[in-house]
């Protein structure tokens, strides 16, 4: 009996190892910075440069990290071809220091999702409006507006019955973001800094909702003028907001 049990355990462990290696190979072969940046570039009509994607056959266990991403402002197709694979030196629209994604594998076999981390670190967006009132994101907004609106039926509210597995998440969101905004009409700069929106310690179990039905939330940001205001009685300001709370996503009674 003990021998059969040990053989079963050995087979189980072997299957898990094979699963991890196969999944790791798939991740390793499919997650390529050149491929990812080219697809993003086509979708956004912008030059996209990714310095590094930390990925290996064991990334299915250790996680994936994308480092130092930079995205330019709009570029015509001919110019995009010549800039493919080159760093975005000037005319930066957005960037980020890193994106980390880490998920635990073994809990999936128990119908549980345990996400350790899905966090965007130090993202930066540079918004600007010309003297003529043209925003540097107008091309992205217009492309969405051109699509004919579709009439959708009102969606039913999500219930805990729609979640077939228990969910545990360490943290998900964004840390220390920055939005720089330049208004060409008034020749004025503003900045939103230390922008953080983080959901953490998420614990939801449909089978044990009375004890596991919680999401913690941290939100923080500052907004300030860059240089003195040229109009109005207020010459400058610097306002910070920080909040922490807890969300109960489902009502146990209903």
Tell me what the structure shows:
By secondary structure, this protein is an alpha+beta fold. The protein has one domain (about 1-145, about 160-245). The protein is about 25% helix and about 40% strand. The protein contains 5 helices and 9 strands. It has helices spanning about 1-30, 35-45, 60, 75-85, 140-145, and strands at about 45-55, 65-75, 90-105, 110-120, 125-130, 165-185, 190-205, 215-225, 240-245. Strands 1, 2, 3, 4, 5, 6, 7, 8 and 9 form a 9-stranded mixed sheet that branches. It is globular and about 55 Å long. The protein starts with a helix and ends in a 7-residue tail after the last strand.
Q: Could you provide a short overview of the structure?
A:
Helix content is 24%, strand content 42%. It has helices at 2-30, 33-44, 59-62, 77-83, 138-145, and strands at residues 46-54, 64-74, 92-103, 112-121, 124-129, 166-183, 188-204, 213-226, 238-247. Strands 1, 2, 3, 4, 5, 6, 7, 8 and 9 form a 9-stranded mixed β-sheet that branches.
Features:
254 residues, alpha+beta, 9-stranded mixed sheet, 5 helices, 9 strands, 24% helix, disordered N terminus
């Amino acid at each position: 009996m003990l021998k059969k049990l040990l053989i079963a355990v050995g087979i189980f462990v072997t299957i898990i190892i094979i699963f991890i290696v196969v999944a790791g190979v798939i991740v390793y072969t499919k997650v390529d910075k050149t491929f990812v940046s080219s697809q993003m570039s086509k979708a956004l009509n912008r030059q996209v440069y990714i310095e590094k994607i930390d990925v290996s056959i064991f990334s299915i266990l250790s996680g994936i990290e994308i480092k130092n991403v930079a995205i330019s402002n709009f570029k015509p197709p001919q110019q995009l071809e010549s800039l493919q694979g080159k760093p975005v030196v000037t005319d930066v629209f957005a960037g980020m220091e890193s994106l980390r994604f880490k998920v635990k594998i073994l809990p999936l076999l128990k119908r549980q999702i345990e996400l350790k981390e899905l966090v965007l670190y130090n993202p930066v967006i540079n918004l600007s409006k010309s003297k003529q009132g043209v925003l540097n994101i107008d091309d992205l907004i217009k492309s969405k507006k051109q699509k004919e609106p579709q009439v959708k039926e009102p969606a039913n509210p999500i219930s805990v019955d729609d979640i077939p597995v228990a969910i545990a998440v360490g943290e998900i969101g964004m840390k220390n973001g920055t939005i720089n905004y330049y208004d060409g009409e008034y020749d004025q700069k503003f900045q939103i800094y230390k922008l953080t929106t983080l959901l953490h310690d998420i614990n939801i179990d449909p089978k044990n909702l009375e004890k596991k039905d919680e999401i913690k939330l941290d939100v923080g940001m500052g907004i300030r003028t860059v240089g003195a205001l040229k109009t109005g009685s207020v010459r400058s300001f610097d306002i910070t907001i920080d909040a922490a709370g807890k969300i109960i996503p489902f009502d146990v009674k209903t």
